[in-house]
């Protein structure tokens, strides 16, 4: 399944707020459809709930189904809570780190900065958005690109920097102080339902 490039409000109305997908505020709190909001609430099945939580991760972090399955397998191999480890892996992707440091307004915007060679990790240029960062890694913007990125930062609304990251918007640099804690995850998701969804597939 390819990466989603369609209407973003349609996804937000169906799944809820996804800060990595868009910073725009949606005024309608019901799913998209030509008949408007449903008058009668239909109870969702357990599978529907699991699918919705899985889709939140996919759309927020901008990853494909194949990538998410790979991350679930990696999380199951490691010791600890599979759900929390899965979220830590997703949070340690370079595109998400660049977004959380405040260098881009969305994860898609951060992915574009990385693809175009504006980002360096430990003084080495990295052009792979799925690159997994580690604790104490230093992420910064290349010197020739700082003027361009500062213009992007001026035009976007301010984002709060999580406690596990240290960001300096003046020098456009930051580093990972420690592993992200569960309460610092950028998206509201029930990771246990995601693990249950993949329990028969992985």
Concise structural overview:
The chain contains eight helices and five strands. It has 202 residues and is of the alpha+beta class.
Fold blueprint:
Elements: H1 8-15, H2 46-61, H3 65-77, H4 82-91, H5 94-100, H6 107-115, E1 119-121, E2 124-125, E3 138-141, H7 146-154, E4 165-168, E5 173-176, H8 191-198
Antiparallel strand pairs: 1-2, 1-3, 3-5, 4-5
Helix pairs in contact: 2-8, 3-4, 4-8, 5-6
Looking at this protein, list some descriptive labels.
2 domains; Ribosomal Protein S4 Delta 41, Chain A, domain 1; 8 helices; 202 residues; 8% strand; alpha+beta; 5-stranded antiparallel beta sheet; single chain; Structural Genomics Hypothetical 15.5 Kd Protein In mrcA-pckA Intergenic Region, Chain A
């Amino acid at each position: 399944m390819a990466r989603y490039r369609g209407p973003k409000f349609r996804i937000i109305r169906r799944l809820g707020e996804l800060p990595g997908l868009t910073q725009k505020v949606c005024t309608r709190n019901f799913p998209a459809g030509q008949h408007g909001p449903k008058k009668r609430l239909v109870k969702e099945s357990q599978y529907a709930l699991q699918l919705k939580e899985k889709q939140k991760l996919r759309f927020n972090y901008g990853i494909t189904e194949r990538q998410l399955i790979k991350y679930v397998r990696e999380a199951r191999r490691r010791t600890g809570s599979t759900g929390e480890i899965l979220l830590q892996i997703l949070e340690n992707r370079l595109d998400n780190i660049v977004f959380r440091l405040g260098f881009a307004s969305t994860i898609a915007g951060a992915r574009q900065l990385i693809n175009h060679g504006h980002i360096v990790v430990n003084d080495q240029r990295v052009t792979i958005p799925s690159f997994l960062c580690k604790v104490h890694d230093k992420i910064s913007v290349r010197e020739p690109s700082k003027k361009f990125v500062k213009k992007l930062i001026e035009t976007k609304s301010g984002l709060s920097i999580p406690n596990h990251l240290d960001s300096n918007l003046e020098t456009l640099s930051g580093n990972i102080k420690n592993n992200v804690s569960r309460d610092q995850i950028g998206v509201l998701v029930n990771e246990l339902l995601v693990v249950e969804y993949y329990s028969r597939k992985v």
